[in-house]
Structure formats: structure tokens, C-alpha cells
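Protocol step 6 of 9: fold each sequence in the batch and record its C-alpha cells directly after the sequence line. For illustration, a two-sequence batch is reproduced in full.

Sequence one:
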Amino acid sequence: MECMNEISSVLRFFADQKNYSYIDRIANALTPDPAEKAIQEALRHLRSLYDSSFDYKDEKSGKTLKAVRIGDKPVILPKMPKEECVREVLEALSDSSFRRRLAILSLSWG
């Protein structure tokens, strides 16, 4: 479940930015391949955002986080999932109910 949460937090970040395409492709995938491709593209997109990110001091927690500027405000990036979690989720994508649950969790408030 921890690994599903790591991936869903990435997908949730894009949903918060009104980019639902990754979640929709996972939810509607009839086979694992389109879901795998959607996760790959989401992780690649997040990686490119990290490449252009800056350090942001969170006033509530005091932690320094990575953020990007969207419009005139900083938006904190989700953590990049660990490799073992990506592997675990990719293996579970063969189950269509897992794909739907991943999409549903990604649409929830984190």
C-alpha cells in the first residue's frame, strides 16, 4: 500500500494542476501496457519539473522542499517514488482492479 501511495501522490499532483490524462489512461487501460506508459510519462514529467525546481522553505514544517513556480506562486513537488515502489506498482498493473484503485486513490485529497 505504501508503494501505491507513492505513485498516487505523483498522479494526484498532476490532477491538482488540472492534468488528469495520466489518471484517466490508467483507469481506462484494458491491458497493463497503457497504464505502464502513463506512469512512465508521469514520472518523466515530474523528473523534468525537478530539473527546473528551486528550494522552498516550508514555513509550517521548517523543511526545505522542492518547488516550481506556476503562475505567481510556488507549488511544492511530490517526492519522487523509490525504485522498488515503482517496480512493485508496475508488477501489480496486470490486475485491472489494481489499476482502477490506483486511479481512484489518485483522485482523492492527499
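Sequence two, same batch, same settings:
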Amino acid sequence: MILKRLFLALVILLVDIAVFFIPLVACFATYILLWRPIWFKDWVDQLYKDCIPKGPEDQAESSA
């Protein structure tokens, strides 16, 4: 019984170390930089769509 509890405690500890030791943000940033997924660009465009000033051609279309 004690060996089973000790094994379970070690498994929980190893999973905890593995999950929190791996730099998830760095792995995610590397994925974004290497593969350049289209969903990330769409998300950034959606995020900044109100912040980007319109060019002269866009302003001419909106005033017409």
C-alpha cells in the first residue's frame, strides 16, 4: 500500500515538474516564428484593426 502511494506521489511530482519546467511561452513563440500560422495573423489583425490609421485611399473610399 505504501509503495502504491509513493509511486503515485512520484508520478504527480514528475508531471508537475514536466509541466512547469518546460517554458511554454518560449515554445509557443518558437512555433509562431517558425510556422507562421494564418490564425495568428488573423488574430493580430483583429486585435489591432482599430489602432491602425487608414491610408489616403481608404479615407477616400469612406468619404465617397
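Proceed to step 7 once all outputs are recorded. Observation for sequence two: The chain has a mean pLDDT of 84.
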